[in-house]
Specification:
alpha/beta, six-stranded mixed sheet, disordered C terminus
C-alpha cells in the first residue's frame, strides 16, 4: 500500500472572529476512501483548505509522519498531497496527453522540460489507462465531456505520484453513468493511495465510501462506516427538516457547499 495516512488534531480556522473549523480531529488510514459530508457551512472545504495550506490554521496535521501544518502550499504538495476543486482546472487548448505530460514534468528541471519526449512516459500511460482516457489522449481537453475533465484532473495528480488525493465534489454536475465511472475510478485509485472526498451526493457516498466523517458547524459530529453514520441519531437530527432524496435511508442530500 503506497497511500499514507492523515492525522489531524484540534484543527481550528477562524475568519474575522468567526470559527469555521472548531477543533476537528481526523484519523484517515492509509488506503482509505473517506467521504466528508455535512450540511452547508459545515466546514468541509475549509478543512481541506487548511490541510493544503490555503488558509491559516492552528492545531496539528501530520502526513507520512511529518507535521505539515503551517508549511507553504508548494511544500505541502511536495509531500505527496494533491487536490482538485469543484471546477476542473485543465489546460483546455492542450490535448489530454499534453496535460498529463506537463503535470508529470512538474518535478523536472527546465532543461529536461525543453527536451522532446521519446514516446509516452510510463506514468502517463498508466494514468491514461487508470482514468479511461487512453483513446482520447490526442483530444483537446476543452473538447472533453464534463466528467472526462474531472478524470483528467485526477490523472494529472496520479502522474505526480500523489499519495493523498483530496477531491472537492468530484461528481457535481455529472450524469448517472459519469458518477458510476468516477466511483469506480476512485476505487482503482484507492487501491494504492489514500483518497478523501468532499461530497453532497449521498447516493454516491453510500455506494463508494469506505468510511465517512460528518461535519456540522465546524466540528466532527460522527464518523464510521456508511451504515453507522446513517443510523446515528445525531446525523438525523442535523438533517431534520431538509428535503430527502427518494429512497434515502437516513441522510438526505444537502444542496450546496460552503463558500
Amino acid at each position: 500500500m503506497n497511500g499514507e495516512g492523515l492525522t489531524v488534531r484540534d484543527l481550528r480556522v477562524t475568519f474575522d472572529g468567526f470559527t469555521a473549523v472548531d477543533g476537528v480531529d481526523l484519523d484517515i488510514r492509509p488506503g482509505d476512501l473517506r467521504f466528508l459530508i455535512g450540511p452547508n457551512g459545515a466546514g468541509k472545504t475549509t478543512v481541506v483548505d487548511a490541510v493544503t495550506g490555503l488558509v491559516k490554521a492552528t492545531g496539528s496535521v501530520r502526513f507520512g509522519g511529518e507535521e505539515i501544518l503551517g508549511r507553504p502550499v508548494h511544500r505541502i504538495a511536495r509531500t505527496g498531497i494533491g487536490r482538485t476543486f469543484q471546477t476542473a482546472t485543465v489546460f483546455e487548448e492542450l490535448t489530454v496527453l499534453q496535460n498529463l505530460d506537463i503535470a508529470a514534468g512538474a518535478g523536472r528541471s527546465p532543461l529536461t522540460m525543453l527536451r522532446r519526449r521519446k514516446g509516452v512516459p510510463e506514468q502517463v500511460s498508466r494514468a491514461l489507462e487508470t482514468t479511461g482516457l487512453t483513446r482520447l489522449r490526442d483530444r483537446p481537453a476543452g473538447a472533453l465531456a464534463h466528467g472526462q475533465k474531472q478524470w483528467l484532473e485526477i490523472g494529472m495528480l496520479l502522474v505526480q505520484d500523489v499519495r493523498l488525493l483530496l477531491l472537492d465534489e468530484p461528481v457535481a454536475g455529472m450524469s448517472h453513468d459519469e458518477r458510476e465511472a468516477t466511483g469506480e475510478l476512485l476505487r482503482r485509485v484507492g487501491e494504492d493511495r489514500t483518497v478523501v472526498v468532499i461530497e453532497h451526493d449521498m447516493d454516491f457516498m453510500r455506494r463508494f465510501a469506505r468510511s465517512v466523517t460528518v461535519l456540522h458547524a465546524g466540528r466532527v459530529l460522527t464518523q464510521g462506516t456508511v451504515a453507522e453514520v446513517q443510523a446515528d441519531a445525531r446525523v438525523q437530527e442535523v438533517y431534520l427538516g431538509r428535503a430527502t432524496e427518494p429512497g434515502a435511508a437516513a441522510v438526505p442530500v444537502p444542496v450546496a457547499e460552503e463558500a
